[in-house]
Amino acid sequence: MEKILIIIPAFNESENIRQVVDEIRASQPSANIAVVNDCSTDNTESVVREIGETLLPLPYNLGIGGAVQTGLMYARDNRFDIAVQVDGDGQHPAGEIEKLLGPIRSGDADVVIGSRFLGTGDFKSTFTRRIGIRIIEIMNRMLTGVAVTDNTSGFRAYNSGAIEFLSTTYPQDYPEPVAVVELYRNGFRINEVAVEMRERQKGTSSIGALGSIYYMIKVLVANLIAVSRKPMAKEGD
Questions:
Q1: What is the DSSP string of the chain?
Q2: What is the pLDDT of residues 145-180, one digit of tens each?
Q3: CA nearest neighbour of 92 among 27, 173, 44
Q4: What is the pTM of this model?
């Protein structure tokens, strides 16, 4: 039987996490859910304990990269066939998860990225962020030849090979765009599917307008470093 793990990295998402988990549970009742609490300072952890889902508490705040990698290590160690990354702020409708699973189940992709820019839904993020995402798209396309429209999307699915690879190599800083480069350079097949996204349900994003510009510049530098490194051999190569 196919084993699916839904990984939810969460930092101070106590206002959102219950609704996020409930929505996933209704949409993917056979999937396992693991919430990685990235040393939240609110009561995210106690809410997850009340819900009764798997809780992976981090002793220190590692950021989104460390939180996602923790979930992937858990998926690897427990032999899950597919891992799906879903934000803890409610931006990713659980009803769209099935779209991510299709290309992996059919064997057409190792990694599937949910894109908000392929024609589904109205939410596209702020103007500043869209400009940054577009610049990152152009750069990643130049570096890899792969046309990924939503490199910063954290709505992704991974097969067992990608889980194994990323559980030891997942980027700690600016992880989503850099992971696209690392995956491509190591021979993984990346597909995008159109998904609906929405604004975070409650709370405030940690990245503002100036933060978006800073983020974009550092992503560009990180991707240049990533593409200069020698590819690592995939398992079985």
A1: ---EEEEEEESS-TTTHHHHHHHHHHH-TTSEEEEEE-S-SSSHHHHHHHHT-EEEE-SS--HHHHHHHHHHHHHHHTT-SEEEE--TTS-S-GGGHHHHHHHHHTTS-SEEEEETTSSSSS----HHHHHHHHHHHHHHHHHHS---S-TT---EEEEHHHHHHHHHH--SSSHHHHHHHHHHHTT--EEEEE------SSS--S--HHHHHHHHHHHHHHHHHHHHSPPPPPTT-
A2: 888 999 999 999 999 999 999 999 998 877 888 899
A3: 27
A4: 0.85
